[in-house]
Design goal:
Elements: H1 5-15, H2 20-27, H3 31-39, H4 45-55, H5 64-68, H6 73-80, H7 91-111
Helix pairs in contact: 1-3
């Protein structure tokens, strides 16, 4: 039996022994949203990346097809390797930068107009 995307993410969260309340707080979503994501057959790659970053888990092996749409195949192989010491010209380095920018953007949007 093949697991759906939400089940794969939930399994990683449970294996990492991450508290759901803490995860929801760090992702700035409520717990119900997390549980809804865990039931989804498909999840957007941004959601998967955000959760992976928070729980310190690399989902690129679990969701190769989802990440293929964002990067060429040879760059995906860089993601699958050990990326803790990635140089600035690696894909993982720029993916982390992109995620950080998305998080900053979300914080600005939540603040509302000036």
């Amino acid at each position: 039996m093949e697991l759906n995307a939400g089940e794969i993410v939930e399994l990683a969260v449970r294996r990492k022994n991450v508290n759901i309340s803490e995860l929801s707080r760090r992702l700035h979503v409520n717990r119900r949203t997390l549980y809804n994501w865990f039931r989804q057959k498909k999840l957007h790659a941004d959601v998967i990346c955000e959760i992976g970053k928070v729980i310190d888990y690399d989902f690129s092996n679990d969701f190769e097809d989802e990440f293929k749409q964002f990067m060429p195949k040879e760059d995906l192989m860089v993601l699958n390797s050990d990326h803790r010491f990635s140089p600035p010209d690696s894909v993982y380095y720029w993916m982390e930068k992109y995620i950080a920018l998305l998080e900053d953007y979300k914080r600005l949007v939540r603040k509302g107009p000036l």
